[in-house]
Structures are given as structure tokens and as C-alpha cells.
Amino acid sequence: MKSKRTVDYDIDMDTHQALLDHRKATLNVLLDRIPELTTFSEIGDLLRRSYDWVRVRLIVHPERLVKFGKQYLVPKGVAEDFIRSVFVQ
């Protein structure tokens, strides 16, 4: 039977806070780049994910999206919530 290896991480509080601040700053930059109405591919570009990856997750609630012809557009508030939820994972 194989034993699990454990690694002790000794991160001091200053380093931990610096990592949290960096993550928060990155999230704020991403949120600032979102226009009032955006597409799945634009959100995918921000997150470095595919258009399809974003579409599959957002189309679950089509009532939150704006239909423009055959295309769905994502309002800024919905896009911000989505990016926050992905970024937290």
C-alpha cells in the first residue's frame, strides 16, 4: 500500500497577503475590460478559455442573456458574476 506524501507549506503572512492582493488586482483588471454588452468569445479571451466553454456555462440561464438576432449577448453584470465565479475556483 502506497503512503500519501505530505508537503508542509510554510508561507508567512506577508507572502500570503501579497498573493491575495495580486489575485484581487488581476480580477479587477479583468472586470474593468468588460463592455456593457459582450460576447461569449470576448469573455473566453479574457479568461483564456474557448468560446464553447463559456457558452456552455452561460446558456444554462438564457433569461439572463440578451438575444440579438441569432446571437446571445452577455450583459456586463452577468459577465462580471461569471468571471468572479470562475476566478474563485
Write up what this structure looks like:
This protein has 89 residues and is mainly alpha-helical. The protein has a domain at 35-88. The protein contains four helices and three strands, in the order αβααββα. Strands 1-3-2 form a three-stranded antiparallel beta sheet. β2 (66-68) and β3 form a beta hairpin. α2 (40-47) crosses α3. The chain starts with 12 loop residues before the first helix and ends with a helix.
Strand content: 5-15%
Query: How would you characterize the largest beta sheet?
Result: 3 strands, antiparallel
**Distance N to C terminus:** 32 Å
- Taking all Cα atoms into account, the compactness measure Rg is 18 Å
Whole-number mean pLDDT:
88
Helix fraction bin: 55-70%
**Helical stretch count?**
4
Widest sheet: strand ordering: 1-3-2
- Order of helix and strand elements from N to C terminus: HEHHEEH
Number of strands: 3
Q: Extract low-pLDDT stretches.
A: none
Q: What would you call the structural class?
A: mainly alpha
Shape label: elongated
In short:
This protein has 89 residues and is mainly alpha-helical.
Can you tag this structure with a few keywords?
89 residues
What does the secondary structure layout of this molecule look like, with pairings?
Elements: H1 13-32, E1 37-38, H2 40-47, H3 51-58, E2 66-68, E3 71-75, H4 76-88
Helix pairs in contact: 2-3
